[in-house]
Amino acid sequence: MAKKAKKQQQTGGTPATVALAAAGVEFTVHAYEHDPAHPSYGEEAAEAMGVSPDRVFKTLVADVDGDLTVAVVPVAGSLDLKALAAAVGGKRAAMADPAAAERTTGYVRGGISPLGQRKRLRTVLDASARGHATICVSAGRRGLEVELAPDDLARLTGAVVAAVGRD
User: Fold this and answer.
1) Which of 104, 54, 95, 92 is nearest to 75 (CA)?
2) Residue 104: left (phi > 0), alpha (psi -120 to 50), or beta?
3) Nearest partner of 71 among 114, 111, 39, judged by Cα
4) Does pLDDT of 90 surpass 80?
5) pLDDT tens, residue by residue, 16-48
6) 99 exposed, middle or buried (CB, 10 Å; 0-12, 13-18, 19+)?
7) Is the pLDDT of residue 117 over 50?
């Protein structure tokens, strides 16, 4: 896998794949043809890769007490905003304005990765990720996912691991 990572970095890749390669983390890139008509980016990724939706995680940006915060939760469920606020010592959380999320992360909606963001945001990874050897998250654009160990993702993003997803 390291060879694939180096090749990705040399050809430009995305900020997420470049960050993974620079960190020397083992990862696999999964590309698929994105269908703009699909109602869910995450479910589309799971279907296209043939991976269980509980192993594919979506990256959501929320506003917690005025600070943008990233939540990484399974596409099979949703984000518990109250639990997210508690996980970072906040009181209130709401989904961030999509334009602010795109501007701050440097990625477009449906392709926001928890890795390689323009401005590093505090991150919370749902605890269910630790139940899998590897998980998939956006690699920084629609139709591109990266598979890696959840502990590597947590370490590289400085994530707090907490139960912030719900079924």
Assistant:
1) 54
2) alpha
3) 114
4) yes
5) 999 999 999 999 999 998 888 888 888 889 999
6) exposed
7) yes
